[in-house]
Amino acid sequence: MTPNHEKFATLFNELYPKLCRFLECMLGERSSAQDIAQESFLQLYRFGTQRLPTEEARFWLFRVARNLALNELSKRQTRLKLLHLIPDPLRPEKPNPEAELEHAEQSNLLWDLLQSLPEHQRAILLLREQEELSYREIARLLDISESKVKVDIFRARGALREEWAQRQGAATNVEKHRRRNQV
Amino acid sequence: MNCEWTEKVSLLMDGELMLEEAAKASAHLAACETCQEAQADFLQLRELVQDYPAPGLFAQRRALASILGAESAPERLPLWKRRIAVPAPIFALLFGAVLMLGALIVASRFSSLPKPTSPLQNQPPRANVAEDGPRSMDFSAFDRGGRAVIYVVRQPPTSERKEKP
User: Fold this and answer.
1) pLDDT value, residue A82
2) Do B64 and A9 touch (CB under 8 A)?
3) How many interchain CB pairs under 8 A, A with B?
4) Quick check: pTM over 0.90?
């Protein structure tokens, strides 16, 4: 392995798991997340790892990955809109069996909770909670103001808390109903 | 339900308050149940987000190999851009063969054109005037060697011409 490859491999092994985790939570899906993570690293490789110190590379990667994730989410919304235009008999029953199976296997509460947030709030919250970036670093990475970061994090936490409470409330009601039927 | 201090509690969790503000927020938190419940929920959600698993090592290694492999491989040019390397002698032979073929084609085209004909071309050479008689004037008797046969025509005297009917 050449020295350039070694440096890149070191950076990759350190940041790939974190980037994948961030993207999976952003997209709610594993395969797209891994594709985008790979594309982000490929762009970094072509840009040249020797041009950036490690911390800058981290910022660069997350910025690129987040933009690619937003593009992917936008495409999904367009596909959904187009799907709704198709008459019911012609609409495919299972558009992506693999994604459905993946979702069924995961059945992750976190994915469901995060999908209830707008994309920008989701990204900010994930960067804060998973990557432990400061508000200033998040603002720099996303090219927004620090005050916007403060407001969005608080709103995201509040929205997640409400969503979680509703789900727990629904689960509690289901449990009560089940016990009533058993009796 | 949120207290007006709940946002400060959120900032306190992230260490984004100045010392003085942090002290005030901590003091309020100790006395406010609403803020305590909010903080507990926020921390539980943080744990849920942080506990999300990273991808396995197999996927990681495969991705790295894919990136380095793709970038190390020589770029494959499209067919029309590829140079076909031909050794020089073979190229010279091919070139010579093409030239010869072209020359043959041109030569065959010229040979197939109709040749200009002459009314005299297919006629046999005439015999000498000495055999035909004194009145024949036939300039077609150029021989094949291109030599002209000179005819001498002898006219009878005037008196002899008048006597004849």
Assistant:
1) 74
2) yes
3) 88
4) no
Closest Cα partner for A123 from A156, A99, A154, A150? A156
Q: DSSP for B95-146, please give it.
A: HHHHHHHHHHHHHHHHHTSPPPP-TTTTSPPPPPHHHH-TT---TT---TT-
Find chain A residues with C-beta within 8 A of B70's C-beta: 42
Per-run averaged pLDDT (10 residues), chain B, 165 residues: 86 94 94 94 93 85 84 62 69 90 89 59 53 54 62 66 50
Chain B residues with CB under 8 Å of A5 CB are 68
ipTM above 0.90, yes or no: no
pLDDT confidence of residue A50: 74
The verdict on a CB contact (< 8 Å) between A110 and B64 is: no
Is the Cβ pair A12, B67 closer than 8 Å? yes
Whether residue A147 lies within 8 A of chain B, CB to CB, comes out as no
Cβ distance of A42 and B55 shorter than 8 Å: no
Supply φ then ψ for residue A67, to 5 degrees: -65, -40
Task: Pick A16's closest partner by Cβ from B50, B60, B70.
Answer: B60
Show Cβ contacts of residue B133 under 8 Å, excluding neighbours closer than 6 positions.
none
Q: Select from A17, A129, A161 the Cβ nearest to the Cβ of B55.
A: A17
What would the DSSP string read from start to end of chain A?
--HHHHHHHHHHHHHHHHHHHHHHHHHT-HHHHHHHHHHHHHHHHHH-GGGS-HHHHHHHHHHHHHHHHHHHHHHHHHHHHHHHHS-GGGS-S-S-HHHHHHHHHH--HHHHHHHTS-HHHHHHHHHHHTS---HHHHHHHHT--HHHHHHHHHHHHHHHHHHHHHHHHHHHHHHHHHHHHH-
